[in-house]
Amino acid sequence: MNESERRKKWLIISLSVLCATLVFSCHDLFNSDDYKIKKLEVSPTEALPLAYGDLSIQDILSSQDSQYVKVYPDGLVYLDYDQTLRSQSIRDLVTIKDKTNIVGVIPAPSGTLPAVINDTPSNQVTIVDSFNLDPEKITEILLKGGQLAYSVALAPANPNFKFAVRITLPEFKDASGGQFSIETTGNSNTVQLDNCKYISATANKVTVIYTLILKKNPNTVFVAPGTTITASVSFSGMDYKYVKGFFGNQTANLNSETINIKAFGNSLLDGADVSFAQPKVELQVINQVGVPTRVTFSTLEARKPGGSLPVNISPASPVSILFPTVMGDSALTAISVTNANALLKFAPTQFFYKASAEINKGLSSGNNFITDTSELKIRMHVEVPMYGHASHITLADTVEIDLSDADRSEITEASLRVKTSNQIPLSANLQLYLTDGAYKILDSLIVPAQSNIIKSSAVDAAGEFVSAGVVDESIPLSSDVLKKLFTAKNIIIKAHVNTTQNGNTYPDVKFKSSYKMDVKLGLNVKAKIKVDL
Amino acid sequence: MIQQIRPLFLVVVFLSGVHIGFAQNEGTLYFMNALPQVNYLNPAIMPQYRFSLGLPGSSVYVQYANSGFAYNSFAKQTGDSTTADLSKLYSKLKKKNYITNAVQADIFRFSMKLNPRLYMTFNITAKEYNRVMLPQDLTGIFINGTSAYVGGKATISPKVEAVSYVETALGFAYKVDRKLTAGARIKFLKGFANATTQRATANLALDDDYAITASASADVRTSGIHNFTQDGYSFSDHWRDYTHNNGFAFDLGATYQVNDRLTIGGSLIDIGSIKWKNDTYAYTLDAANANYTFKGVDLQKVLDNNSDYLKNEGDTLQARFKFKEGARGSYRTPIPGKLYLSGSYKLKANIYGGVLLFAEMFRGRFAPGISTSVHREFGKRFSTSLSYTISNNAYNNIGLGLSLNLAPIQIYLVGDNLLRAPLSVLAHGEVNPYLNNMRYFNLRAGLNFVFGWDKSPDKQPHPQKQL
Prior knowledge:
Low-confidence stretches of chain A: none
Largest interface: A-B, 53 and 54 residues
Distance between the termini of chain A: 62 Å
Radius of gyration of chain A: 46 Å
Largest sheet of chain B: 21 strands, antiparallel
Helix content of chain B: 10-25%
Number of helices of chain B: 8
Structural class of chain B: mainly beta
Helix content of chain A: under 10%
CATH architecture of chain B: Beta Barrel
CATH class of chain B: Mainly Beta
Number of strands of chain B: 24
Strand content of chain A: over 45%
Structural class of chain A: mainly beta
Mean pLDDT of chain A: 86
Mean pLDDT of chain B: 87
Oligomer: heterodimer
CATH topology of chain B: Porin
Strand content of chain B: over 45%
Shape of chain A: elongated
Distance between the termini of chain B: 17 Å
């Protein structure tokens, strides 16, 4: 073996030993602790969309009052409130009282009476009476309920004497329109008066004709002298579908009524300085009772928690209201509210009235009518064109938060991305207040100088849109304040809203349905996250 | 000589400038002529043994490659503890990061020299290849957040490729003349399982108002995988189904002896495809449906007191991005193809310098790399290679090849990033520094039965045999 071959041999042996050493000592050469990762660090900056919308003034208003928002043909948005209350009280003025015991005594023929081949009318007694009505003078009634009770008694008794009594009411028609008449052989009975009609040229008059009927009898019969048949009728429970006549001079105290108004109760106008250019508020009295009526408002006011404001009307109370001359019609009397602007500014939550209705004031006759469905309705009509100006409108909401478990070093920077293009003449300043559990304000998140996240559109002298207000900003949120997020218990979101401002004044502006507020809000948050694994 | 090397140098510079460092090829093995397996990289290369035989275990190859990051790319030592610094990881990532692992094992192989001009090889080899592409933006969304993408777009769709098959190959190397040797191999492929991303896009776009738009489309296909997710499925009852995925591939190669010292070569390996028929399944997302923009809370809905709105939006999002899955018809996929261009120069007796340009071509990805090596033969008993490889964006790959030729037994070990392991042990007492920086690793090892060391200079295609 020469030197070269010896070197090769040792090289081979050396490499083999090296490889073997590496392989067999691997478990000592590998430190697994290096691969036990105990923490994870990451610092992401997240851009997150928060909210968006292409909103019109209808959208903003309709959150509470969608059914009230309407649009004029020229696109101007207005609020239209109609609320109608009906009063039953005036119907109580006309009721048909019971009329009892209209009695007639019919003398029976005496002696031995021959056989009777066919039923034969005999003696007749007519009783004229009056319904107990005052001051009403009723000439026509269509009944929808009531009973007529009647009885017949023969004295002395004679079982061989076959007879009946026909009771006829000349002022009454039966349900089929025929003369109201009944024949009875028994002692007492009752018939319903539903759909019977009373018509009398003489007001309140009621006539009962009792006619004795000798019934068919093949035998002769002896009737003692002085024998009589006593008959009587009574009216009770009479209710009408309509009544005509003259109802006299009466006064009804109408039920007090409350009209709740949602739109004016929200915080939109609470505490705000609001002026509408052309608001309209009126009361409309719809009268279905054919009686001259005068309504006296003893109380008519707008209310909200903690206060009230009288409603001034024209014509002034008492108000003579129109009445229909044809049954089934109604008459409308408009009463305008003269302090509408003050009312809207007052921002009431309710309208309240207490009133009385006097009929036939100073009249001694007339053709009155009332039906069982007749109502005296009072409708509240408010029409507020969104044309005017406003300032210091405050919208607020409170959101509970609890980040106490979070690592407060997690959020190191944050900014609010605001991109708005606003055609609506409203400007909004937004602020987020952090509070403790007792709602004590700890700090505010947005630098006041940058809180104007929605700029109002520019308008011309007529309040019409000229150009959109644009905001395209990233509003940094103070890192010091962000740290207070972790101790805060609530966030109060508060927005101060004004209409377009011109210097220190707020000109009247119009809110039209086509105006849009394009809002895009985002949040940029830089966080430092450390996770123990 | 300089004149002869210049073209090769220019090619090297060109490829380096384009994009070196993504290939999954073997750089060190190529010049180790003593190993019969060298023929896998160029069918025109005739191994030095006239006959060799490989039984199961004769050649096992493992590979790991990560073009994006090593462990040290995110691990940070602070005192005694290790912290995962994901921001650091993101800064190390490329736009597209490929994590690949591959395994090959010879089941049977033999090669023999039929005559002085013709060499035959035959092998049956099981191969598996898995690759995941992770876009940098996918991690960026989580690590850096969405803010960085405001006004832009994040591409976050990963892509998966996985293929396993058995190849049965018959090849021949033919010495055309004293200078030129050509080789070819035909391969019959039996696919076992496959997952392929035919199409996958997933984007997150952020407007300057932070509105996020997600859009996606995908067509992911699998074969031989879905059945395993079904209750009661028994592979032993259905193994025959896995014999239905057939394919063909070929290798082509040539070497040319420029002069007594310089030999150049080139080869195309694994050019072919497999048609997948068994248990083919598809997971798809339709681009027309899979898109959604989240602009935040819709104030209109809030004002309308629509409390179900956000839940409905969540349901919509889920429905739009739900994969539609179902059985599908057969489909065809290529297998990972490779390209080698080589130059070997005899520096001294038994010492050779080599330069190898290589590339992997698979599913739209062309991944080149470069390796330089010095190869020395210590007689016929022992040969070594030392290489330096730039691959997978890693520049710290010092390769080593050892072949102990104790005919009829040949034991070998060769890899492109091996030597730093013992160096790490020597310098630091542990292998961790090596592992922590490792992005590329391959190793081929085994035992061959070899016979007949062929020293005949006039019958060898390589320059050393002519000296």
